[in-house]
Amino acid sequence: MDGPNDSVVSEFVLLGFSSSWENEVFLMLIFSLIYLGIILGNLFILFLVIFDSQLHSPMYFLLANLSLIDVGLSSTTVPKMITDFPNKYKIISFKSCMTQICFIHIMGGVEMVLLIAMAFDRYTAICKPLHYLNIMNPKICVSFVITGWVTGVIHAMSQFAFIINLPFCGPNKVDSFYCDFPRIIKLACTDGVKFEYMVAANSGFMSMGTLFLLILSYFFILVTVWKHSSADLSKAFVTLSAHITVVILFFTPCMLLYVWPFPTSSIDKYLFIFDFVITPVLNPAIYTLRNKDVKVAIKRLSKGGQYVRFC
Asked: Which long-range contacts (CB under 8 A, 24 or more apart) does 294-301 make?
């Protein structure tokens, strides 16, 4: 291959789910419907937050950005997976594979920072309500989003810079429906142990650190609610349990694959369906559609209510 690393391999074969043709056609229809739900659900939330003036608050600003990232993260893998289902040979070019890896980790890094920002927003609203608007001012909210993108790009490029220069001259079959660092490293014609440790140190540390901060913030929220009114503790726990469920669904595959250098197993590809499919389609319902303000905004939309006027 005439590429940046002079590799012989010019394309990879994605083994996908390796099921019968009938099953793959069925899965293609199911994932097509789910992907349509991801796009419509998240873009609808984005539309509401942008055009409804009553939703112009820090929490909904962060939720809108999360919806945008969910669409982006899902779009890095799901459309390719859907179009590959009917094909016997699921081919992806070397450049497309590297691009997919890059965008997966950029979007994943942004989402982790946004989840931290959302947890901080809830902590501030519950634990420091009198100072909420001063702390969560527009400049801070924009800073969170910018920090997320900068973190995502640095996170992805710090690993991508090493992987792109690895020689690929042997097997080119990837036992998954998408490209990612652990599986691609194992196909390199060199000892990839040090690169596996590098991925574990980078992605693993970021996943563990983010999850720790999220759990810590939820703990402080519950303790604060309990101190003020033990009767409201169960209500707060029910509210947070939905958020915690999504966090667990998002981080479990990351923890299993990235925390330490492990031989990749066939179950990994099924776990990452949660990140690319399940979590993005659940987020609109869990974070917004169960929210009273959003329900009111939807009613205003149906009645042609008050929206932002642009000059």
From this structure: 294/45, 294/48, 294/55, 296/54, 297/48, 297/52, 297/54, 297/55, 298/48, 300/52, 300/54, 301/48, 301/52
Predicted pLDDT of residue 3: 46
Q: Are 11 and 172 in contact (CB under 8 A)?
A: yes
Residues of the chain with pLDDT under 50: 1-5, 306-311
* pLDDT tens digit sequence for 229-283: 666 677 677 667 767 777 888 888 888 777 766 655 667 777 778 888 888 988 8
Q: Which pLDDT value is given to residue 90? A: 87
Q: Provide DSSP, 66-90.
A: HHHHHHHHHHTTHHHHHHHTT-SSE
Within-domain flag for 1: no
How is residue 23 annotated by DSSP?
H
Give the dihedral of Cα atoms 3, 167, 102, 177; nearest 10 deg: 110
Give 196-250 as a DSSP string: HHHHIIIIIHHHHHHHHHHHHHHHHHHHHHHHH-GGGHHHHHHHHHHHHHHHHHH
DSSP 187: T
CATH of the domain at 44: 1.20.1070.10
Q: How far is CA 101 from CA 17, 74, 92, 203, in A?
A: 19, 13, 12, 13
Tokens of 282: 């659940």
Q: How many CB atoms lie within 10 A of CB 306?
A: 12
Question: 3 lies in a domain?
Answer: no
Structural domain that includes position 239: 11-302
CA distance 192 to 178: 20
Single-letter amino acid, residue 225: V
| Spatial distance between the Cα atoms of 66 and 256, rounded to a whole number of angstroms | 23
d(CA 31, CA 11): 25
* 284: in domain: yes
User: What's the total number of domains in the chain?
Assistant: 1
pLDDT at 227: 78
Residue 6 included in any domain? no
Residue 260 has a pLDDT of 66
